Amino acid sequence: MPDSYTLKCIEQLILKLRSVLENSETDDKKRNINYTLKCMASLARAVINQEPIFGIEPWHAINENVPLNCPSEFLLRLKGSKGEKLPPYPAIMTFYQNDMTTDIDTILFLCALNQFKNGDEKQISINVSAHSLRNADFIKTILNRIKKMTFTDDEQIIIEVHETSLELQMSKDVLSLFRKCGVMFAIDDTGLSIGDVMRLAEFENIADFIKLDHNSICLNSEKSNELKRIVSFITSMLPDAILIAEGVKNTEHAAQLQKKYPQIKYVQGMHLPKNHNKFIEDWKIQQHRKTALG
Predict the structure, then answer these.
(1) Which of 2, 83, 88, 248 has the fewest CB atoms within 10 Å, i.e. is most exposed?
(2) Using alpha carbons only, how large is the chain's radius of gyration in Å?
(3) Are residues 55 and 18 in contact, defined by beta-carbon separation less than 8 angstroms?
């Protein structure tokens, strides 16, 4: 059966969008809202037909001492009525810019839990704005849904937190409630900005994983020194957190990172294999080549 509660949330959000559309004064804003409504129609169809809406981008382990053996990030992938791809970013930004962040986060998190429950993935990360983790309705809805789920020993849900503003503070009590349900936390796109420093402070003793800003994962440029500073800072501030490098190009790039930054335990990237076993095969070849070259 389709998730009736999620469909109700989608219907309510569509009504909000239509209200914004009626009061829009510029053509650009009208186009953005209309595109977002198209995305919501796609989402509703997928929920009714119980179809997956997330693609998979694995976190590949490059170290034996890792807590999870097959984690992957859920990335929103919507299609129009004719099967055409609908880039999610413009729609997500429309929600954020019209004070609907928590609405869309709630819907997508519920969809992610349903896809996780009915799919083959064992360990998944779900993107959430930090604003939603300060919203009582989001917290209550998601915690209640998670508490109703049954998990095997190798199954894991990770909340991947992004978009924390300087004035936003996390509630350690709320984060602990998710912890008690077995949820782990990752901080997305971490660099050395003031916002990043604030996020690390807010998630001290809470964050299990830190994702390094993909713009800094470049060994052969001026960013190399920046990455060194980022890794040094994070490991000194949150020594128990596990580092994940995003934007990794291939297994050779992963091997370079492992050699220079042994603190990095996982790599992720759109050009890496979508299958964990395929990456393991490629990784073994890369390691054998490295050994043969001395």
Answers:
(1) 83
(2) 20
(3) no
